[in-house]
Amino acid sequence: MKRSQKSWIEGVFNKRECSKIIPSSKDPHRCTAGCQVCQNLIRCYCGRLIGDHHGIDYSWTISAANGNENEQWSVEKHTTKSPTDTFGTINFQDGEHTHHSKYIRTSYDTKADHLLHLMLKEWKMELPKLVISVHGGIQNFRMPSKLKEIFSQGLVKAAETTGAWIITEGINTGVSKHVGDALKAHSFRSLRKIWTVGIPPWGVIENQRDLIGKDVVCLYQTLGNPLSKLTTLNSMHSHFILSDDGTVGKYGNEMNLRRNLEKYLSLQKIHSPGLLRVPGKPLILAKSTYKKSKK
């Protein structure tokens, strides 16, 4: 990537990090700043352990002692933005095959026009003639084999014949995994590229450290810890927009970014006779239950 492109990305796209510790524990014990118990066992409302808030003063213990413990943590009030330091290319190793995916970590309130510029100009994607937005549960579920076959064939055919973008949560569980399975079966039969965009929350992604770096090419481990509440990225997605609201282990705000991007895409003109707009088709497979983060 040219220096000017790298500078543009750092100048436009931001990450979010918690800027004030408000403990979620109701433990009434009074401790001093830097208490090892608090650092390693108690979490802030953002979802991080107290000890993972590097560079933030632990003065919350004093305010709690003075009776201010009822302050409500929120994304808008208690996170700060700074230039993103996480973008580049992921190399997913899948047996004999390697899949390459572009990615970026960016704030959930990033402007849609900036995202589309990134996708078209920097990532060299083609403006879609159709957007297929796949929604559903983030929990794993079994899909009957016949239904899975119909879903897979229909999804791939629709994307191939229309030049569509498929947009999902991009994670290795639930509906996103079923989409990935469909694309995996397709990839062994055809060389045609299907643009598949995953938009998960940055804070639910396991093995984050593999991804941090500016304009890096990284190997990403898709095998997650079975005991972890986090999840891994699905290797069959061609692009990832990692929506960051400063929280860990929480879903919800990434849908703001996704809806805004899909709406903005629907307003774009297809360069064809009549200058048609990009249509969007939502596809819902399962109900979703997740813990939302507070604005």
UniProtKB/TrEMBL annotation:
It holds the Pfam family LSDAT_euk. One of its GO terms (molecular function) is monoatomic cation channel activity. Residues 102-279 form the TRPM SLOG domain. GO terms for biological process: metal ion transport. One of its GO terms (cellular component) is apical plasma membrane. It comes from the Eukaryota. PANTHER family: TRANSIENT RECEPTOR POTENTIAL CATION CHANNEL SUBFAMILY M MEMBER 6, TRANSIENT RECEPTOR POTENTIAL CATION CHANNEL, SUBFAMILY M, MEMBER 6. This is Transient receptor potential cation channel subfamily M member 6. The lineage of its organism: Eukaryota, Metazoa, Chordata, Craniata, Vertebrata. The gene is TRPM6.
